[in-house]
Amino acid sequence: MPLLRVLRKSTPLGVLNYTARCSVARMNTISPATSADLGPVSARRLNLISAVLVLGAITSLLDTTIVNIALDHLHTTFGTTVAQTQWVSTAYLLAYVAVIPVSGWAAERIGARRVWIAAISAFLVGSLLCGFAGTLPLLVAFRVLQGLGAGMILPVTITILTRAAGRERIGQAMIAIALPGQLAPILGPVIGGAIIESLDWHWLFFVNVPICIAALAFAPRVLPRDAGQRGRTFDLVGFLLLTPGVAAVAYGISQAGGPDAFGAPESWVPLAAGAALLVGFIAHALTVKRVAPLVDVRVFARRSFGLSSVITFVGGFSVYAIMFLLPLFYQQIRGESVAATGLLLIPQGLGTILFLVLSRRFLANIDGRFVVAGGVVLTMLGIVPFALAGTSGGEVLLLAAQFVLGIGLGAVSLPVMTLAFASLSPDETPRGSAAFSVVQRVGAPFGVAVIAVVLQSRMADAATPAAALAAFGGTFWWVLAFAAVPLVLAWFIPKKPVAEAAPADPARV
């Protein structure tokens, strides 16, 4: 199976959710947001803000897996080659990552609420145009517009939520950002498969329309208003270094699918070029004086933010890799359909939901080191049954293992994100959100790509079902070994409860 297609079916691009206690209908009773709303808001208002932001973010997260499930169908529909059809996903991915670095500056210059509304609008228009596209080139072009909107949504969402929550409720804000990234790889294949079987491929994109319209309807009345700072000069040099650098790295990772993996020219050339551009941006960001850099790289020098970023990056080799492997295991080893696989993965989502619900009660009193380390251990325990599984039988054990995995994934992702953003002041949040999002969008796919290469090398000589099973089993053991890295790093987390990770002076973190 081509690695590019495999990656796009399973890589979580990220992270957003919260089940609001207030019904959507109650949003109409909220008075319009004013400029005074920039700081922390009431608990009820925070719930409503979370609900609106989730409406927008869940569509961009689900869109990736929903569409990827239909690539084979689109290949047949348009009568194009597989390589040509895969640009439906590649174009979206590159546009997505390329626009992230600009999100921080845009939120500061124009205002986070305006940028968020513009991003949702772009995604909505892109979805409509994709649904009406009659040729593959048009579909690919409109996917770029979709990706540009989607790439802005997550970092700006983080900015709005963390500002509205304030440092005292940073953990609650992170709960609102944690769940959809875990559920998207599970729900996406189910929804996409159902659309292809029951409706038409156009509805892969039209399904976004009512959700985006609802988000746009409530956003002006619910989201806090911030006027932006007109004097913010755009960092053009940084843009010319960082944006193509991130896009080149993402493209290089996505192309590591042939026999030579990362050694193939189509992979290592863009990776090397992207890395050189990123190094150039870091040097620029540390020395520029006249303008604020697109991404404030100095925040990585802080223990809390830097360590959280490292854990997030290396988590791609374990936490995100397991989410990549499980669907393949069920489909290639167990012979399950795409829709059945999505249903089998539900216990994992339930485990994550359980952790995020319970975490609101106990996280504030527990040392963050133990939460993250415990989450990694649970993840490792959930991997073992799959490393030892056969081609049939043991379903109850595997489902239970996925439930444990879900708890572990939530216990790793939530405290790490809380720790990262608790150290940022409101003014630092936009560029810090962009920086963290870049780490996520590069680290997770890179780790997954490495594991995919491990699996592909083992599957190359797997001529029998038993050999294929052994290949998967060996790859699961690799993931288990990689999990030891975040387990070790967890003990360097500051000795403070997760929900109280922010010090009085963020410069001293």
Automatic annotation (TrEMBL):
Q: Name one GO cellular component term.
A: plasma membrane
GO terms, molecular function: transmembrane transporter activity
Membrane spanning residue stretches: 48-71, 91-108, 115-134, 140-161, 173-196, 202-224, 236-256, 268-286, 307-326, 338-358, 370-390, 396-422, 434-455, 475-493
Instruction: Using the record's annotation, list all stretches that form the Major facilitator superfamily (MFS) profile domain.
Output: 49-498
Q: Where in the cell is it found?
A: Cell membrane
Q: How does the protein's chain sit in the membrane according to the entry?
A: Multi-pass membrane protein
- Provide this UniProt record's keywords sorted from A to Z: Cell membrane, Membrane, Transmembrane, Transmembrane helix, Transport
Concerning InterPro entries, the annotation shows: EmrB-like, MFS, MFS_dom, MFS_trans_sf
**Record's PANTHER family?**
MAJOR FACILITATOR SUPERFAMILY MULTIDRUG TRANSPORTER MFSC (PTHR42718:SF9)
> What family does the database annotate?
Belongs to the major facilitator superfamily. EmrB family.
NCBIfam families linked to this entry: efflux_EmrB
What is the official name of this protein in its record? Answer: DHA2 family efflux MFS transporter permease subunit
What is the organism lineage in this UniProt record?
A: Bacteria, Bacillati, Actinomycetota, Actinomycetes, Micrococcales
